[in-house]
Design a protein that fits this description.
The complex is a heterodimer of chains A (297) and B (330). Chain A has 297 residues and is of the alpha/beta class. Chain A has nine helices and 13 strands. Chain A is 31% helix and 37% strand. In chain B, α1 packs across α13. In chain B, 41% of the residues are buried. The longest helix of chain B is centred in the first third of the chain and has 43 residues. Chain B is 73% helix and 0% strand. By secondary structure, chain B is mostly helical. The chains are: A alpha/beta (297), B mainly alpha (330). The interface between A and B is medium-sized, with 20 and 24 residues.
């Protein structure tokens, strides 16, 4: 009896009956979703050793139908476990964010850490673009973004009381990707607007999403350019405390530089606070801003 | 008589405390602390209760004692069905979603039946091997996740409905320790230190449960936690060791599979041993194997069984043993 059981177990517990060779998997690293009229156009960027960026396109009336169309056109099995970036166009962010989140939550292979990005261009154009120095197609968009938000962070902000989600924006101009110039503002699952460049810097400063920043200051009608590095923001008792090192890169100025930098940062943070309070990006209201800057000349 | 070591007995307690933790306990960590403190009451009863089947017969008489013992076997079966359905659901949801559930059930039924043909010494040694694998997986998970805990997520204090929630936590985490009451005191080596060991192991087990909860809430947050069927697996997917090793969620989740496997083995061992004691029929293996096979392969409504299990466990694992101890001491 025992020997029979052992023999059966050898065959049944080997785990080989539904194995999949790595060669037969199409590993998806980026996903672009464009919604035009009633049709979803989905593009998958698939990792390949020979060619850097292979894009497969499918369209349908729902996300699942569009993905099914890709499945039918590709000779390999789609594997979404390594998905790192999801790019969606403005129209999709305005109307169908909930469907996307629902789809991702139900997807068994989906990684918990996939970042979402909004674009005003066509989403496909963003994932097609590849930096000459980058080899991993999924990470090349993410490498320059300050506000990195995964779909699970997005859901958290939607579910939490008194908070609303935001997403980073990447646009394409002159064959280059521009990030950190704007942030997409949401009310629950609906895109309601975008921030300007200064507000974006302010929001990134408040949320400690920024490590380095170049600021240009007016000093007696001359230019003073300062590079802030090691920026660290802490929020304690509704007070924002920002610490950073400042290095002067261009200067023709004899004024109190520290005061000028403090005022500029306060101006940026105040702009950020206005947006965060209006659109409930952070919980509660801020009372005070404290800035500690070490200036290196 | 084959004796088990105190260390092996401790490991059994740890597996019993963590077996039903996966996916069933959604409560916040304040409820966990509260439940673990109240859990000392049933623990003290279990310390006093050894060889439960004999105790029931001496306290309530042959007829009533045997009825209670049979009910206890049924509850043990009930809890092993809950654990098996949770194990198979977990594997089917997170690993083998294209494989039919009945297939997975058959694969697990075979080792269960095989291991139960062995005596407690073999089972406890197997548990020790699993325990060391578990320690490695647990430490790897902690190293991979500790820097992702967000303190502000842990500062949400919710004490609504704390008593019903605590009863659920106690039923699933503390009361399974009852299954170790099937052993006679003489079966355990150095049994004079048993009381201290049980209390220490209970505290260690509680800390493990607490750490797991802290990681779940600290990483996913209370709100997101409720969206996942298995938040423990969702958390492990995020594990990142030294920025080099990623995507190891599936390997680390073996921790839960081993936990459930060992939990089911101990509960089934309790049923088998009790049935032998009640029926005095030593060759019960064949009937028992068929029974296990049927129970595991049968599709069940686990959520309904959970609702039935909670009141039954409180009555038969706490109230009746307490009554038996009081009657026996008179």
């Amino acid at each position: 009896m025992k020997k029979v059981l052992i023999v059966i177990m050898i065959f049944l517990l080997s785990g080989c009956f539904d194995y999949k060779e790595l060669n037969n998997l199409a590993i998806i690293t980026k996903m672009a979703i464009d919604k035009n009229n009633d049709t979803y156009e989905i593009n998958f960027s698939i990792e390949n050793l020979n060619d850097k960026n292979i894009i497969y396109t499918g369209s349908g009336k729902s996300i699942s139908e569009a993905i099914d169309n890709i499945k039918n056109s590709i000779p390999k099995k789609l594997y979404i476990g390594h998905l790192s970036t999801i790019v969606i166009n403005e129209n999709m962010a305005k109307k169908n964010m909930e469907q996307l989140i629902d789809y991702l939550l139900r997807l068994k292979e989906a990684p918990t850490k996939a970042y979402i990005i909004v674009t005003k261009n066509k989403a496909k154009d963003i994932i097609e673009e590849i930096e000459p120095f980058e080899s991993n197609t999924g990470k090349n968009i993410l490498s320059n973004i300050n506000t990195k938000i995964t779909y699970t962070d997005f859901i958290k902000s939607v579910i939490k009381k008194n908070t609303e989600p935001i997403l980073p924006v990447v646009n394409k101009a002159n064959r280059k990707l521009n990030s950190n110039k704007s942030i997409a503002l949401f009310k629950k699952y609906k895109l309601i607007g975008f921030t300007g460049e200064e507000e974006t810097k302010g929001i990134n400063l408040i949320n400690n999403n920024i490590d380095e920043l170049i600021i240009r200051l007016n000093c007696s009608k001359k230019n003073l350019v300062v590079r802030l590095s090691n920026i660290n923001t802490k929020i304690k008792d509704k007070t924002i405390l920002i610490k950073a090192n400042a290095q002067i890169t261009e200067s023709n100025c004899n004024k109190n530089i520290k005061l000028l930098i403090d005022n500029k940062i306060k101006k940026l943070v105040n702009k950020g606070i206005k947006v965060t309070e209006k659109y409930k990006i952070n919980k509660g209201k801020f009372k005070k801003i404290n800035i500690k800057i070490k200036v290196k000349e | 008589m084959k004796k088990i070591k105190l260390f092996e007995y401790d490991i059994m307690l740890l597996f019993l405390m963590n077996g039903l933790n996966l996916g069933l306990i959604e409560e916040n960590y304040i409820t966990i602390i509260f439940s673990m403190l109240i859990g000392f009451i049933p623990l003290l009863i279990f310390i006093k209760t050894k060889n439960i089947n004999k105790l029931n017969i001496t306290s309530f008489g042959n007829k009533f004692g045997n009825i209670i013992n049979i009910i206890l076997v049924i509850i043990a079966f009930l809890i092993s069905i809950i654990a098996t359905s949770n194990l198979i659901d977990f594997i089917s949801n997170e690993y083998l979603y294209n494989t039919p559930k009945s297939f997975i059930s058959i694969f697990f039924a075979i080792p269960f039946i095989y291991i139960l043909t062995k005596d407690i010494k073999v089972i406890s040694r197997t548990l020790v091997i699993f325990f060391f694998i578990e320690i490695i997986l647990f430490l790897l998970s902690i190293f991979g996740l500790f820097n992702q805990i967000k303190i502000n997520e842990l500062l949400v204090f919710n004490t609504d409905n704390i008593i019903p929630k605590s009863i659920k936590v106690i039923s699933f985490i503390v009361l399974p320790i009852f299954f170790t009451c099937v052993f006679k005191k003489e079966e355990i080596q150095n049994n004079k230190q048993l009381k201290q060991h049980m209390i220490t192991t209970y505290i260690i087990g509680s800390i493990i449960v607490f750490i797991i909860k802290i990681f779940n809430i600290g990483i996913l947050g209370n709100d997101l936690l409720k969206l996942y069927k298995y938040p423990e697996h969702a958390v492990l997917k995020l594990a990142n060791i030294g920025g080099i090793i990623n995507n190891i969620g599936s390997i680390l989740s073996i921790f839960w599979i081993i936990n459930l496997f060992c939990f089911i083995v101990i509960t089934l061992y309790y049923s088998k041993r009790s049935l032998i004691q009640i029926t005095k029929f030593k060759n019960i293996h064949i009937i028992f194997s068929i029974l296990i096979f049927l129970v595991i392969v049968m599709p069940v409504n686990a959520s309904l069984l959970c609702k039935i299990y909670i009141p039954l466990s409180l009555i038969f694992f706490v109230a009746i043993p307490l009554l038996a101890i009081i009657k026996d001491s008179k």
